[in-house]
């Protein structure tokens, strides 16, 4: 089965693409794109992987599913296309980056600039119907992205995992904390950010860990 993902990822994840669940997932996703409005654009389904080679990963951030509003999603969790107003969770993320590191709030919510530095911005579900959150949950994406987390955990040590909220924390439970840096907080959603996301200082902690392990810190 031909999946348009970068060669190194295909090498690590190739066995998944041959499993029955993935064939059914591809069938479902193709049908959805053919008959409904679905985000992100098909070319961006694996954008997070294209932007971040597995051999370069420094940080993993786990989201749930793509933004479901027009023009928002482009394949990276929490990120929006240039020119799109920041969703509330991203507003809170940028506030914490500013308070933690002193970095100014950027003009664009496009997080390609993080991904290009080795930050894998991974949604658990990679597609969604317009205006229907979680509409592609339970179709196989979660099994695939569980395999992604397992592959990273097996392939690369001294990675920072930012696990925001119980969903991300369950998905990251496989990662060995003795060989990596696990940072946990509540989700940056306005419903929970004031209960521990603000003040978590994950961005400075991540950079301190990276520098301590001989890696270049991320310019947040």
UniProtKB/TrEMBL annotation:
Q: Which GO terms describe its cellular component?
A: cytoplasm
Write down the chemical reaction(s) this protein catalyses.
Hydrolyzes single-stranded DNA or mismatched double-stranded DNA and polynucleotides, releasing free uracil
- Write the signal peptide boundaries: none
Q: Its Gene Ontology molecular function terms? A: uracil DNA N-glycosylase activity
Per the Swiss-Prot or TrEMBL record, the active site comprises 65
Which PANTHER family does the entry mention? Answer: URACIL-DNA GLYCOSYLASE
Name of the protein? Uracil-DNA glycosylase
């Amino acid at each position: 089965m031909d999946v348009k993902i970068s060669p190194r990822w295909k090498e690590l994840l190739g066995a998944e693409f041959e499993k029955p669940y993935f064939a059914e997932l591809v069938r479902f996703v193709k049908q959805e794109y053919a008959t409904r409005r679905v985000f992100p654009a098909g070319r961006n389904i694996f954008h997070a992987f294209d932007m971040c080679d597995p051999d370069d990963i420094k940080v993993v951030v786990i989201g749930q599913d793509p933004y479901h509003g027009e023009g928002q999603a482009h394949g990276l969790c929490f990120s929006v296309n240039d020119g799109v107003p920041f969703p509330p969770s991203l507003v809170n993320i940028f506030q914490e980056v500013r308070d933690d590191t002193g970095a100014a709030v950027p003009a664009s919510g496009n997080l390609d600039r993080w991904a290009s530095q080795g930050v894998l911005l991974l949604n658990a579900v990679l597609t969604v119907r317009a205006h229907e959150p979680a509409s592609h949950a339970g179709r196989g994406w979660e099994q695939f992205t569980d395999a992604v987390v397992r592959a990273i955990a097996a392939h690369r040590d001294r990675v920072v995992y930012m696990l925001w909220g119980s969903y991300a924390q369950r998905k990251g439970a496989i990662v060995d904390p003795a060989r990596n840096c696990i940072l946990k907080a509540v989700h940056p959603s306005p419903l929970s950010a004031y209960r521990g996301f603000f003040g978590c200082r994950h961005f400075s902690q991540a950079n301190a860990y990276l520098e301590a392990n001989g890696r270049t810190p991320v310019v947040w």
